[in-house]
Amino acid sequence: MLFCLLVCLTCSFALAGEGHRHDDKQPTLTADGPYLIAQPDGKTRFIAVDARGRLTDTLYTALPEDFSFRVTDHRGRLGFDVKLHPTRRPVAAYRQPDKVFVMSDPHGRLDCVVSLLRGNGIIDKKMRWSFGANHLVVIGDIFDRGNDVPQICGRFYKLAEEAARAGGCVSFLLGNHEPMVLAGDMRYTKPKYPLLAEKLQLDYPSLWGPDSALGRWLATRNTLMTIGPDLYVHAGLSREFYNQNLSIDTVNQAMSRALFLTKKERRALSPLTEFLYGNSGPIWYRGLVRTDAKYRPLAADSLRLLLQRYEVKHIIVGHTIFKDIRTFYGGQVIGVNVDNQENREKRRGRALLIEQGRYLVVGDKGVQRTLHEVE
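The structure corresponding to this sequence follows.
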């Protein structure tokens, strides 16, 4: 790829071993990034790893308006080009379009994302938006567990721009794993990511900081949103959340304000921030889909109050894994998180399609069944 740029510094080198192989005991780099980080002097640092494990670390004096870069999965497949565009916070309330496609927790598996979107006509064979004026919703957790984290961010970043041109929309909501990694909690992170940071003499969260292109994108993502009669949130809404009497905009702004802070700093920032990032907050609470006492399940009358406050009929969540798409509270709550790799292999449900008032379970080959409980 050629860039019409003035290059101040370029450093490229190959690491020993085959980059496309991954061994948790002896990690190697695989295709990763790119990461673009603005420097204090106005330059931009460009960091990427190719499919053979070769790391490029380049400092550019300026990026032209038409700047673009190539993205592939960790093995060099599923390639696409991404062009930078302005990043702004999306609105948090939408009218119901003809179709809404809802998926959750892609966790670094670009192949699973592409298979699901292609199989349901969201993107075409060339991975271009083909869902018209409709809406794609991703309910959090791109980070951790898989080898294609920045690549999936780049995929949705690009799709959002393509969808907007077609009159459609792509919404990614924050999950719990994005704030975990940005706060330095790497317990579920593949070893290739801290290895990359070590080679760069950086800590891994700094690749996603507020001065990075991917960090700026994440900082403008919402935590709560509504589309027609449905409210979307990563984990769930608790009785304690109801008692806070919060507007959706207040939640979204407060979550973004603390996104790049450590856990200790989030606690110190404000009682609201401590609550929102805690176990009863919207990115962690499981009591809408778990009945064990330790999860503090939500009483039916509390759910009714939440639905009334936000003027919706259903709450759609991810976060908690089930074997297939499930409903709770007589269809008022829908859980869409599954083990995406396993469900793809076993041809089980992996997403939700809302079309003309019908709530349909879909797999990698399209519609499988209707969620009969949902009205």
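Residues 149-165 form the longest helix (17 residues).
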